[in-house]
Predict the 3D structure of the following.
Amino acid sequence: MTSPIGTSPAPPEGSAPPAGGTPIEIFGMRLPVPKWAFYSITLFVTIGAAIPVFSQLVIPLTQEFTATSKAEKAKAEAARAKADEEKAKAEKEAASLRAKKEEIEQQLVRYKEYQIHYGEAPKSTRELFNSADLGSLSVSFFTSDGCLRVNRKAPGHNQAELIYWIAAKSIPLEAPPGKLDDVKVSRQEVPPTNQPFLNASYQFATLLPAAAAAAPTAGTSMAACIDPHPGAFQSWNGQQNGCWIQVWRRWPEGCQHYQWFNGCNGYWDNHPNGAPRVYWTSCAH
């Protein structure tokens, strides 16, 4: 007898699912779901299964790579800092050795001159001053070789008299380095920021009027610069080449030049007529 409600009989076991659905089994029950839902559930399950693998493998590898990069960067920075420190130390030691060498050479010169003029009386001696507040200063001239002996004593009691010899014929004149081609890019060209402008003038015309008036333009990099240049200026040391020291001068308006000074024997690089030989690197006139 048919059911009065008219329900359809259940499909036999093992028959195909209804069209458009895919059965999944959840807690022992088989449920037909649409294909898009089946794929979405499969994707979520796959992602969920991959998360532990990602956490255990990929993340540690990424962290290790990041830590290695930071360590290598820190190591490189430490190596650069060490190299800079060693370079500064080497430059300081080289400067100290040069200073010691120059001091020894000056001591030898003083001792040699003392031996030469031990039994010789000076041709003339001029006392520049002698007072209780200034001390004393005198200069003696020796005709045998043209040397000068400077006697200096500081003010006060129990002060030792210092003796300096200024040789004449015994000083070997060395050729100065001349113009430096890379001077514009040298960091030595930059003056110290904390050094004020000196209350002095580069006025060789006052000291050497005839020589400065006839000063040639050769040896200067900018003939249009005012030379000798008036006014206060900054002065600082630059490169050193043996006994020669590069002395920079800069004026407030931006004019700038350098001149070589022989620190071993105490004389400047000059033209044959006695005018200072300078090399202009910046000129505002």
Observations:
- The mean pLDDT is 75.
